[in-house]
């Protein structure tokens, strides 16, 4: 079983790897033996995460990246292709949220959330998959969706729309990239307190979430590690593509 989930010798690129959830998933991949390349904008945070990852005796580095700039995405993909001959695991974790009421949403805010949560994922996958396709290297792409992609939540219409679109493009890319041995799946987390949602977790909203979550608690970031390791592993999930793996404490199973 240990061999089934071993990622030794694999290279994992974690987009948004300096975030709370991104860094935790990066640590999980490292514990399974994967070498890690973190991308993000905050080099100081990246250095702290790199210090943690080093304890697992894997290679780890940081590439400063702005996912809202397509040239930045393209540059990082080119560097990884040139220096490492491609990638094995591509994990898209960058994301932003907002609680602006429906009638107050402005075009700039809509565009910002869509650019980070959807557009960046689409073109990151395109740039990275194009290069692995040319090298016939295969790979596992893992996108991060949300329970709000299935059950739209009040006060976060733009975020919910962006994550519903992530589910759609995940399925599309799974079909498009299967002939090139590139698997594409998504993880649907429930409520994990992180930078992008702390500001919307008012007392009333927390009560509403707990009332709808059978396990009556938030998730811990480490509880996403098992799902990402599973989807990354060719031995464990080699026939899994176009799937959504839900980690939500039962939120999605509660209809009334």
From TrEMBL:
UniProt keyword list: Oxidoreductase
InterPro entries: NAD(P)-bd_dom_sf, Sc_DH/Rdtase_CS, SDR_fam
MF terms (GO), sorted A to Z: oxidoreductase activity, acting on the CH-OH group of donors, NAD or NADP as acceptor
Superkingdom of the organism of origin: Bacteria
Record keyword Oxidoreductase present: yes
One GO term (biological process): bile acid metabolic process
Keyword field contains Oxidoreductase: yes
Similarity field: Belongs to the short-chain dehydrogenases/reductases (SDR) family.
UniProt cross-references to PANTHER family, sorted A to Z: 3-OXOACYL-[ACYL-CARRIER-PROTEIN] REDUCTASE FABG (PTHR42760:SF115), SHORT-CHAIN DEHYDROGENASES/REDUCTASES FAMILY MEMBER (PTHR42760)
Name of the featured protein: D-mannonate oxidoreductase
